[in-house]
Design goal:
The protein is an alpha+beta fold. The protein contains two helices and nine strands. Strands 1, 4, 5, 6, 8 and 9 form a six-stranded antiparallel beta sheet that branches. The chain has a three-stranded antiparallel beta sheet with strand order 2-3-7.
Length: 158
């Protein structure tokens, strides 16, 4: 019997090819999670939001908070309330009127003196719970929708 050399070569490539693909995927996931970050800082991570989502977050060591909010609803929205909870302290804006056009990003921020949010040392990590109430302009009813979730990251020096 004559064995075809091409078949054994193909079997070798298939076996080790899948192993290499799995290793690459694991390394990519670890890189995205910040395992290979030499500075030891976490990029802001956003979990659980939909519709109006935080695009970026900056929590300073003096307690100031800045959020960049992105409108992914599909129409213009008006943000009416933002609730923030971090380190056992909460802050709420009940009279907010922040319009965001479809697909655009708008910054919102609050200082520590206004909000009473805690001060942390630079380089420490934070976990913020945020809820964003907004009205979709496409719906004439004025129904309020809520986008909420957690933001994790590293405190920046002020």
């Amino acid at each position: 019997m004559v064995k075809i050399k091409g078949q054994s070569s193909l079997e070798f490539l298939m076996t080790y090819g899948w192993a290499i693909v799995i290793i690459i995927v694991v390394l990519l996931v670890a890189w995205q999670m910040g395992v290979f970050n030499p500075a030891g800082t976490l990029r802001p991570t956003f979990l659980g939001f939909w519709g109006v989502k935080p695009f970026d977050c900056s929590y300073m060591s003096n307690g100031n908070l800045t959020l960049s909010l992105q409108n992914n609803v599909g129409g213009d929205v008006n943000v009416t309330e933002i609730n923030v909870s971090v380190g056992g302290k909460s802050y709420s804006t009940s009279t907010l009127a922040l319009p965001i056009s479809m697909g655009n990003i708008t910054k919102w921020g609050v200082s520590q003196t206004t909000s009473g949010l805690p001060k942390y040392s630079a380089g420490s990590s934070y976990n913020i719970f945020v809820s964003i109430d907004y009205i979709d302009s496409r719906l004439g009813s004025g129904t309020t929708f809520r986008s909420s979730g957690n933001i994790r990251g590293t405190v920046e020096s002020s």
